[in-house]
User: Fold this.
Amino acid sequence: MNTAEQLETQQPQQAEMIRVQDLHAFYGESHILHGVDFNVKRGELVTLLDATVPVAVRRSSRS
Assistant:
């Protein structure tokens, strides 16, 4: 079974919608994200907050 067939057989809530790999970001001279990897599956909400607020990555599943 190839990857496309595997994705089709997964339940909709488990299907990967977004994949980010090796994300780097800069704010002026500051390197604020260092090689961040994450994925978002169907029905999930992911929030990445910046350094001006408490740093957190929040992942929740919507039902």
